[in-house]
Amino acid sequence: MLQLNYSLMKKQTDRVIVVILSLASFLHDVGSDMVFSVWPLFVTQVLKTNMMTLGLIDGIGDAVVSISGAVGGYFSDKIRKRKIFVWTGYLFGGISRIGYALSSTWQWLIPFRLLDRSGKIRGAPRDAIISDISTHQNRGVRFGVLRAMDNLGAVVGILIAIFFLKTLGFTNLFILAAIPSVVAVLLIVFFIHEVKPNHKTLFKGVSFKNFNNNLRLLTILSGLFALGSFSYSFLLLFANRYGFTTYQIPILYLLFTLVAAICSIPFGKLSDQFGRKNILYLSYFFWAVVLILFIFYSNSISAVLAFIFYGLHKGAMEPVQKTLVAELAPSDYVASTIGAFQMLIGLMALPASFLAGFLWDNFSPVTPFYFSLALTIISGVMLKFVKESK
Question: For 5-383, CATH number?
Fold first, then answer.
């Protein structure tokens, strides 16, 4: 069985490791969301692109996330190291923000978007660390803590964008956003010490055909759901098109991120007590409410409610889905399995955002929401046949 040992200075506790990883994640997300809270406005208004181009850029980035996650998970298990992938991922993110600041056309965004999303190479190894040091009784809440710190960092980053965008402008804001990720790199490099296990494990890798039936079904239905889960950029621009000003849009981004930050830990705890599937059902319901509110959008109150439910959806789905995958994975291949899962469903992100942009431009802004609602219902029905691991 592959198990890596971790120590902090001379004294190791599981809680300390969770705190350090969560703090690094918090810092990185401060920088990320200084950028992403205004990203669709920067791409469409400053660089003058249309919705299909925005969907293409976001879709490419999301697809790279899936591939880099799989690569990180595979090599983390293969060389029996996690730490190097975590700090390297944060470094990629910091460098890319400087690239965004220097981009004058949307074509220049693509290589830096690729580098930024390649930083997700950190995801599966970091999640494997959390899984390795946790039990079935606390794994959900620990993933919830990690996700809550992600979202709390996002809240801080959005607030910085709201208050300083007018003063700094996009270029200076993006350069400033690189600093927190550099600090996150230093935290991981200097404060977490990883010791390889003494024994050697024959590593053959993991693929979709090696998934058990429950994990295979979960992957298929999650991929189907992801096909309809277009980029958040569409939600923000829908609100921008129907009444919210450019400088009000980051407030909506702040709203859903704050709700997700508050709810991630409670939903993680609930999944420990009442099962992972029940919380995933709830997350699908929240997303369906978001879609219905936007389909019948008529005033600012509907938009605000939609972003609250979007935050509930994110807070329920992200930590719990990851927990369920980790528990259905073979114990020797947790990082590889998480990475492979994220790759398979993440590869749906490119067609999802591009298709949403196509439907938006060629039919109507609400057409992508109808399409997503249908896929959400189908995914929810399929989830009924997945059995949880105890």
Answer: 1.20.1250.20
CA angle, residues 52, 57, 63, in degrees to nearest 5: 115
Phi, psi of 4 (to 5 degrees): -105, 145
- Rounded to two decimals, the pTM is 0.69
Distance CA 6, CA 292 (A): 46
Per-10-residue mean pLDDT, the chain, length 390: 47 76 92 85 81 77 75 79 89 92 85 87 84 78 83 86 86 92 91 66 58 86 87 75 72 84 85 88 94 81 88 88 83 74 75 81 85 93 85
**One-letter amino acid of 62:** D
CB atoms within 10 A of CB 383: 17
Domain map of the chain by residue range?
5-383
Fill in the DSSP letter of residue 81.
-
Burial class (CB in 10 A: 0-12, 13-18, 19+), 251: middle
